Amino acid sequence: MNNTAASPVSTATSSSGRSTGKSVSFAVELQSMMFSLGDARRPLHETAVLVEDVVHTQLINLLQQAAEISQLRGARVISAEDLLFLMRKDKKKLRRLLKYMFFRDYKSKIVKGIDEDDLLEDKLSGSNNTNKRQKIAQDFLNSIDQTGELLAMLEDDEIDEVKQERMERAERQTRMMDSAQYAEFCESRQLSFSKKASKFRDWLDCSSMEIKPNVVAMEILAYLAYETVAQLVDLALLVRQDMVTKAGDPFSHAISATFIQYHNSAEGSCMKSSPDSPENTPPHTPTAPSSGSQHSGKTTSGSLGNGSVGQDSAKTKQRKRKKPKD
């Protein structure tokens, strides 16, 4: 299945996943997307290129896996079922994707001019024509779900903490904006890969693939690309938050104290490197007072230096005293 000769993805791509014959870039759009997700107003172009490369590599790998699964089941195109099968183990992202597919159905009905009353009737009656994407997901999950936990996500109304955090961050971001900045922010929030479908298809170089994704699969890929950008921005903001030292943080104080203690001990070990220094010599052992304490004290003090220098000087004085007179 991993044989390159039988791979359904064309080999005309580079090692980083980029097409060698095209120069399609989403760097400018990514700068606006990153700004709408909480990044700076003007992100660096180098940062946008790096994010683009990461997202492009992830999608190319996902497309290759989906093409292999589609080839195994004998299909001619990559469909939504192949992508749902790859995401079946990530429950949170799968729940988010199912909600996105439901709202895509809802948006397509609004664009076609269907009233809200008709939408409610279609939802209650379970019409297959009006809930195309939702029916695809429901039928496929029903075929692979043995425990019922995947189908339960279709009716799960649990609050998505990640999405909630992003909305709160966007609200805090717009508090200090003027009218022009807010208009630019709203325009940036409307950008997505799905709004430039032809450019997105060329960016992924789908024309060179033997098994190509269909329309619904391209919508899911565009959604996953935007989610990858959002996740990268979330992680970058977490790193930036961890780098800021908070006042009164007990852990930062403990870390700094540990560093100072280690730094001082390292300097102390360098100062005590000489074995002959006075700091490395052990103190003399105190003895009990005796009648010859003065004599023993002199002998001890003389022997604390280098060998028997004190004893040699005492013997020289005695020889001088015993020298006969002329």
Automatic annotation (TrEMBL):
<feature type="region of interest" description="Disordered">
    <location>
        <begin position="1"/>
        <end position="20"/>
    </location>
</feature>
<feature type="compositionally biased region" description="Polar residues">
    <location>
        <begin position="267"/>
        <end position="279"/>
    </location>
</feature>
<dbReference type="GO" id="GO:0000124">
    <property type="term" value="C:SAGA complex"/>
</dbReference>
<dbReference type="GO" id="GO:0005634">
    <property type="term" value="C:nucleus"/>
</dbReference>
<comment type="similarity">
    <text>Belongs to the SPT3 family.</text>
</comment>
<dbReference type="GO" id="GO:0003713">
    <property type="term" value="F:transcription coactivator activity"/>
</dbReference>
<keyword id="KW-0804">Transcription</keyword>
<dbReference type="GO" id="GO:0006366">
    <property type="term" value="P:transcription by RNA polymerase II"/>
</dbReference>
<protein>
    <submittedName>
        <fullName>Transcription initiation protein SPT3 homolog isoform X4</fullName>
    </submittedName>
</protein>
<feature type="region of interest" description="Disordered">
    <location>
        <begin position="267"/>
        <end position="326"/>
    </location>
</feature>
<dbReference type="GO" id="GO:0046982">
    <property type="term" value="F:protein heterodimerization activity"/>
</dbReference>
<dbReference type="InterPro" id="IPR003195">
    <property type="entry name" value="TFIID_TAF13"/>
</dbReference>
<keyword id="KW-0539">Nucleus</keyword>
<feature type="compositionally biased region" description="Polar residues">
    <location>
        <begin position="287"/>
        <end position="303"/>
    </location>
</feature>
<keyword id="KW-0010">Activator</keyword>
<feature type="compositionally biased region" description="Basic residues">
    <location>
        <begin position="316"/>
        <end position="326"/>
    </location>
</feature>
<keyword id="KW-0805">Transcription regulation</keyword>
<dbReference type="Pfam" id="PF02269">
    <property type="entry name" value="TFIID-18kDa"/>
</dbReference>
<dbReference type="InterPro" id="IPR009072">
    <property type="entry name" value="Histone-fold"/>
</dbReference>
<dbReference type="GO" id="GO:0006357">
    <property type="term" value="P:regulation of transcription by RNA polymerase II"/>
</dbReference>
